[in-house]
Structures are given as C-alpha cells and as structure tokens.
From TrEMBL, chains A, B:
Organism field: Clostridium uliginosum
Biochemical pathway: Amino-acid biosynthesis; L-proline biosynthesis; L-glutamate 5-semialdehyde from L-glutamate: step 2/2
Signal peptide: none
Protein name: Gamma-glutamyl phosphate reductase
Pfam families: Aldedh (PF00171)
Alphabetized SUPFAM superfamilies for the sequence: ALDH-like
Length: 414, 414
C-alpha cells in the first residue's frame, strides 16, 4: 500500500468519527488549532524562512515571494480566521425537508458531511489553514496537497494544527498533508476514488485543467474567470466608469476581476475615450476591436485569442457591440461562467441579461469583484466553482456538505 | 469538426434557447412528443423488430430480449410517461433565497438549467423517451448515446420525439441521438467538455466504471447498489422476514434490491433457519459466513469477495454480527453508498444506524426497494446517484438543475 493510500485509509476511518462530531467538539478543535498556530509560531516562521530562501534561489518573483511569506501578523490572521469559522453556523444535521408518503414512510433529506475531501493547491500557506478549518467545521476530513514552494511552511502549520485537533479529542487524521510534492503522487491522489469523495483544486488555470483531465475522483472545478462588464446604451457612464475601474484594477490577479469590456455602439464614442484614459492612468494596457480603434486611434488591436483569455494582469480588451443580445452571445461564447455584469438603466435589458447570461454570478450595476464567499455573506469560502455540478459560485460551508435520505418506516414493503 | 462535436455545438446553441423557454412551451413540446410517438408507432415497432432479430441472432437472453422489445402498450406507456412529466412542477426560475448585503447589494440564488446533458445508457428503449422528457422539462438539451442493441428503435423514437419538439416551436436540437455506437465515439463524448455540462451514465457497473474512469466532463455516478438489511437483537422477526424477502426477491435485478443480510448474534439461532428456508422457497441461493454455517449446516460458505459484490440475481450472502456497531462498520466498508436498512425496536440503535451509515438512503424498518424517484414522491427519476457530489439518491427534475446568483446593485464597487 502506498503512503498516499495509507493516508487515504486513515482519512476515511477518521471521517466516520468526524461525521458524527458535535458542533461543540468541532468548535473546540478550531479554537485549539488557532492556539497551537501561535504557540508554534517560531517553528512555523523558521520553516517559512527556508521556503523563502529556496524561492529566492530559484529567482521567484517579488509578488510570489510576498504570497509565500509569513510573519507574526499573518499567523495571527490565520488563527483569527479559524476563530471566525467557529462563529459560522454548522450546516451538518439540518433536515431541509421531511415528508410523509401515502404508505406511511416518513422521508427526510438531511445535510451530512461529504466524508474525505482532497485539496490540491499552490503557493499560499494560509490556504492550508483556511481549508483545514472549513473542512473540519463541515465534518469532513481533509487531505491537503500543497505546492513544493511552501512545503516546509505547510509541514509546520499542519503539525501545529494537528496538535490542536488531537488535544480536542477529535481524530488526528482529520487533517493530513501529502509531503511528497511530486507530480506522480498528485496524479495518484486524483485517482484515489476508494478513499477521497471530492477533489477541489485551487490555483492557476494549468493546475485546474490538469486535475480536470486526470482525476477520476469527482472534482469541483474552481476559479478561472474571464469576466465581462457590458455598458449598455443609455447607461449612467459615471457609474460605468467607477465599476469598470474597480472591476479591472482593484485586484487584477484574482478570478473575479474584469478581463473584458463590452460597450454598446450608441455610447461608444462618448464612453471609450474617457474609460480608456482612466484605465491607462491606472497602468492598464488597453486592447480593442476594430471599432474601438476607429474611435481611439492609439489602442492595440485585440487578436482573436484575446477574447477567451484570462489575463490576471493589468490588461483589458474592449469590444463594441450592437446591443444587449450581441453582448450576451459574446459572453456565452467566450466567458468561463464566472461573473458577468451589465451597466444599464433599462429594465428590459437588465432582465434579459440576468436571465440569458450563463454564469455563476450575474450582476446588474455592480462590480464583478463581489463574487466572493465573504462578500456574499457566507463568512468564508473554500473556492469559487465555475462548474454546474454540485455548487456554482462562491462555496462556503454548505457547499462542503452532501445529503442523506433518512427514512422512518414501520414494516413497509414494496 | 467531428460529427459528435457538431452535435455538441448544436446542442449548446439550442440550450441557450431552451434555458429560457416557458413552462407552457416545454409542456406543449412534451405533449406533442407523446402524440408523435403514437403517430409513428408503426415505424417504431418495425425498427424495434430489426433490433430484436439482430439480438436473437446474437443469442441474447430472454430477459434482455424482453427489456429490448416494444409493443403498442409499451409505446402508450412511454407517451403516458411524457404526459406525467407535464404534470410535474417546473423547478426552473425558482429563487430559493434572496438576501440583502450591508452595501445594499441584493443577492438571489436561482434554479437554472444545467445546459447540455449527455446520457450514456444501455438497452431499454424507454430510457430514450424518459430521459428526453425529463431533460427537456428541466430546460436542458440532451445528447443521448444508447447501446447498439437498440439503435434502430432509438433512431425511430428520437425522430418521432424531435418532430414533436419542432412542432412546438422549441429547437429541434434540444434532443439528439448519437447514431454511431462505437466505443471511440462514446469516449469522445466523455471528453466533450466544451459542449457537455454533465454526463449521466445509466446501466451496469461496467458501463458506469468506464465513464467514471474516462470522462473529463463532470459525471453523476449512478446505480450500483450492494444494499444491506441488518436485523437487530430484539427485532420483530416477522417484520424482518417480510422486509428481507421483499428487498431480496421482489425484483433482484435492480440496484435497490438487497444483496446482503446481517443478523445480530442474539437472534441468529431463531431467525436464520426461518429466513434461509423462506429465501430458498423463493429460489434464492444462500451463502453465509462461518457462524451462519454453524447454525444452518447446508449453506455454502461466502468467500471474501462476496461481501463487496452486487449480484443483481437470486443470491444472498448472510453474516452474523455482534452488534449494531459491527453492522455499521461492515456496511461502511463494503457498501456502495446506495440503500441500507435496519430492522429494530431499539430507539438508540435506530438513531445510531441513521446517523452513522454513510449511504444515499438509510432506512429503519422498511425495505431498501423504496429508493426510487416515484416511491420518494418525485414523480419520475433520471437515475439514482451513488456519489456525494451534486445529488445523492433518486434524482428527479430538481437534480437536473444548477443555480445562478442574480445580483441587483446600484453602482456598488468593492
């Protein structure tokens, strides 16, 4: 039996205990996990230093180094994150509906944990702590497979967290880290159907596609966002400008950032020069289709490839469209089903856009940047699903559960 | 572009129209589909005859021939099935919750169609009609890939149904059949992520495993059931006998049939001779563990492999267990997460069993045979999910939907 299979077996066994843990037990574990993180801060920061040194040797970019690095403040934030999870309502056990059949059978639909969740992710060590906390609160054991860049930090963090879990009396195997960060072991994990109930990849498009292609374990695809903002004829152009600037520039590297701007031809002449100069002031490279170029001469032409691309950078492509229908078709053709927005004053067009755009989150007169578990009011999130199966959009604790039918009879046969 | 890709593209395009069809339009299509089935009955029955002749030449079993064969009565039943779907409530458009955030954003969670559903299935031509009707009612276009045994029947049925869809004014591409029944095309379909949103296999364990192993499109795994009935100490043994006989013998070839019987050691001496002779009277081959053999001498010994097997036949394996805990561990180890039952008079043991058994449907004092969309009151079913992602247990119209967040703002930025 491979080391990963052993981990899987232990996780499955532990899941039968964790599934039936009370909210009080789980909250107690979360608090102790936070305490241990602080107690072991010296070890964690030392191990993090090793990861940083290795990363510097490899010539890692400054932005990546920042994502990788921990300090006392960040550890405090992680512990605080766990305390926030304590405050969230426990979804487990809720019977969302119960009905009686003509034969007297009483059938209830109950929220129960998934069992064993696998998470494959990159870089940021705070994901290790967030994911561990959320999975535990929803009654799931978790097997984490982080990237090699953060392996020393992750080992230290998981060791501390497991100490907390153990002290609370819940099974230590509720949380396990895959220490072998080779691609072979990641592939093995994607096919560990015997033990893993659900796999959630978190990271760049490359990682997510690799998981989708190779996994036989059911996957929740997360995070790729080629998000559009469509500015309708007659829109409040001041509002449109604020929203486009916010959606594009407030945090361009995240999946809910705007990547494309569609402008109705009736407002193109008025809106394009303003928005393009405002975007450029923020350091955004602007690309455009032919009609954009006709209005603002010094814009680079967008290539065919641009329309399907998630830049995650200070780049935007702009297209002029004839009407809301063209905007909707374009979005349904090139979008990734993440977040799409219309800026409009038209009731009809707002309804059409809401109904016809096929995406996880569809906005009227607001920034796409709100697609986020905290902004939606879920308290925390494990990722943003861009598939249609199981969960779509920001996933909180509820999305880490499945259901079970509980049936009370008194001798019924069919 | 391959023929399947073309079908996929057409299905995707049609899905954007069908997604927004009204309930009235969809019901109209369902009624017309039923009418066309009857109108074209001669052609359908002729084509079915070809399939039957081919099957006879291949030496197909009588049971299989029966599943394959159509007659006027069966066609009437299929049309009636479509009329039943008309009566079901349309899940699409329901906003299951809507809330307001502190910044004034109003966020609603709305049920919407999946888009394009792929179904890979075997033999029975009535599945063609059921699946087409259910997918359409839930606003999804569907690509069906049936088995080669029923290809002539399926072509004729789909032709009739499409005529009905066309007459109702909905896109004809709402329903398409893959006429090339080769394995290559099935494999291509499993990887058609560009166009297919969800894949549902329906058939034997071999088919389902092939889809799970090969698909990159999100899959809902259905139907494999290694179901247990556990007879507790102090159970009403008359009730236990009725339930075991019903669960095992009323229809042994279906997935909710009992495959294993677990008997508490305190009732084994009293219960085993009775139940074994009752099972044998019904023509069931009984296998047992050592303790069973000690009580009823002429039983065949169950091998290690028996405990994980879905017989789908007049065979049962019986094991004596020390208590409810051992029954639960055995079920969680060998079960397929389908349907599990306890027969008991003990409040504590009933609660323990309901809470700790990890399966789609957990019964107290009732037959496992009730795990079925109609028996649960869903009106119809597209299959029984044995995975934890998205849907678990019988899947009705609701399970053929996904959600979309619709967000009303007035200029919010983050």
């Amino acid at each position: 039996m491979s080391e990963l299979s052993l981990k899987g077996e232990r996780s499955k066994e532990a899941s039968y205990i964790l599934m039936n843990a009370t909210t009080t037990q789980k909250n107690d574990a979360l608090i102790k996990m936070g305490e241990k993180l602080i107690e072991h801060k010296n070890n964690i920061l030392n191990e993090n230093k090793k990861d940083l040194e290795n990363a510097i040797l490899k010539g890692t970019s400054k932005a990546m180094l920042d994502r990788l690095s921990l300090d006392e403040k960040r550890l405090e934030d992680m512990a605080d994150g766990l305390r926030q999870i304590v405050k969230l309502a426990d979804p487990i056990g809720e019977v969302t509906s119960m009905w009686k059949r003509p034969n007297g059978l009483q059938i209830g639909k109950q929220k129960v944990p998934m069992g064993v969740i696998g998470i494959i992710y990159e870089a940021r060590p705070n994901v290790t702590c967030d994911a561990a906390g959320l999975c535990l609160k929803a009654g799931n054991t978790v097997i984490l497979r982080g990237g090699s860049e953060a392996i020393n930090s992750n080992v230290a963090i998981v060791k501390a967290l497991c100490e907390g879990i153990k002290e609370s009396g819940l099974p230590e195997a509720s949380l396990q880290l895959v220490e072998d960060t080779s691609r072979e072991v990641a592939n093995e994990m994607m096919r560990l159907n015997e033990y893993i109930d659900v796999l959630i990849p978190r990271g760049g498009a490359g990682l997510i596609q690799a998981v989708v292609k190779n996994a036989t374990v059911p996957v929740i695809e997360t995070g790729v966002g080629n998000c559009h903002v469509y500015v309708d004829a007659g829109a409040d152009l001041e509002m449109a400008k604020n929203i486009v600037i916010n959606a594009k520039t407030s945090r361009p590297a995240v999946c809910n950032a705007e990547e494309k701007l569609l402008v109705n031809k009736n407002v193109a002449e008025e809106f394009l020069p303003t928005i393009i100069s405002a975007l450029r002031e923020k350091g955004v490279e602007v690309r455009g289709d032919e009609e954009v170029l006709n209005i603002v001469k010094d814009v680079n032409e967008a290539s065919g490839e641009d329309w399907g691309k998630e830049y995650l950078d200070f780049i935007i492509s702009i297209k002029v469209v004839a009407n809301v229908d063209e905007a909707i078709s374009h979005i349904n053709k090139y979008g990734t089903g993440h977040s799409e927005a219309i800026i409009t004053k038209s009731y009809d067009n707002s309804q059409k856009f809401l109904q016809r755009v096929d995406a996880a989150a569809v906005y009227v007169n607001a920034s796409t940047r709100f697609t986020d578990g905290c902004e939606f009011g879920f308290g925390a999130e494990i990722g943003i699903s861009t598939q249609k199966l199981h969960a779509r959009g920001p996933m909180g604790l509820n999305e880490l559960t499945t259901t079970k039918y509980i049936i009370y009879g008194n001798g019924q046969v069919r």
